[in-house]
Design goal:
The chain is an all-alpha fold. The protein is built from 10 helices and no strands. About 85% of the residues lie in helices and about 0% in strands. Keywords: Membrane, Transmembrane, Transmembrane helix.
Length: about 280
């Protein structure tokens, strides 16, 4: 696993997932969030060890944490009184880190799971932390805040696009391209709705800056994702996986996911403060 990919995955494990879980505002997830470092730290260490038993054992620790998180999805679904698009996105966010963890365990063990090369498995780990967990969660939060047709479209299309991309791993590039198209449409909608929030007078300057960066970076990185999927499906020239990791991957991790979640945290704190003073 390269230094760049390992660093992006560490950010997902140690920062993005626990930060995102706090934004769900579900008391049932508080215990998982408190325990998360016990799983994430061994997982992060496994990234820097040579493939083998030690790295696999530490990756399995992380996988246990992601399965604990995923187990809350059916419980949360059972508690819902009505199905809402925002909840579909949140449920997707709870499950996708376990997909990343499965790929991590196989890659650290040196096993080509389902016939996928180790390099593909290594890239699957950040993909399902950011295009899976972070993207779905942000889409759900945006839908909660702006529950109109556009918000509902984003909350439904992002999970659907993520699922199609996953299915495309097994069925071929055309399904993966369809998933990329659906996911891009959903994420561009998230960027548009985020930009609308930037123009509202309520958020402070720092929050507006974080929202603006997340929206702008997201719009650009999804063009790269679409061009790569199109090239894979048609044979047209497209960026290499190394270039995608350095641009699309890094941009989504820092510019979109981190900035978006920090902004949503600040917006929640602002709402909480206003409710206390009211």
């Amino acid at each position: 696993m390269s230094v760049l990919v390992g660093s992006i995955v560490m950010l997902g494990m140690l920062v993005i997932v626990p930060l995102g879980l706090g934004l769900v505002q579900d008391p049932a997830l508080d215990r998982v969030r408190r325990l998360w470092p016990l799983f994430a730290v061994p997982g992060a260490v496994s990234l820097w060890l040579p493939r083998g038993d030690a790295a696999t054992a530490l990756a399995l620790c992380y996988a246990a944490g992601t399965l604990l998180l995923a187990s809350h999805a059916p419980r949360r679904l059972a508690r819902l009184r009505s199905a809402r698009p925002a909840e579909a996105a949140v449920l997707t966010a709870l499950v996708t880190p376990s997909v990343a963890a499965l790929a991590l365990v196989a890659e650290r063990f040196g096993h080509e799971l389902f016939g996928f090369e180790l390099g593909i498995l290594a890239l699957t780990v950040p993909h399902f932390h950011f295009a899976g967990f972070a993207a779905a969660l942000v889409a759900g939060l945006v839908c909660r805040a702006q529950d109109g047709p556009a918000g509902r479209f984003a909350a439904l299309s992002v999970p659907l696009g993520t699922l199609l991309v996953l299915v495309g791993y097994f069925t071929g590039e055309r399904t993966e391209l369809a998933g990329a198209v659906v996911l891009t449409a959903g994420m561009w909608t998230v960027a548009l709705l985020t930009w609308r929030t930037v123009r509202v007078a309520g958020p402070d300057r720092v929050t507006r800056l974080l929202l603006a960066v997340s929206a702008g970076v997201l719009a650009a990185t999804m063009v790269l994702a679409l061009s790569w999927a199109l090239g894979e499906a048609t044979g047209l020239p497209h960026p290499t996986l190394t270039w995608m990791a350095a641009t699309h991957g890094l941009g989504n991790a820092l510019g979109f996911a981190l900035c978006a979640l920090l902004a949503r945290r600040r917006l929640q704190d602002l709402t909480r403060t206003e409710g206390t003073t009211a």
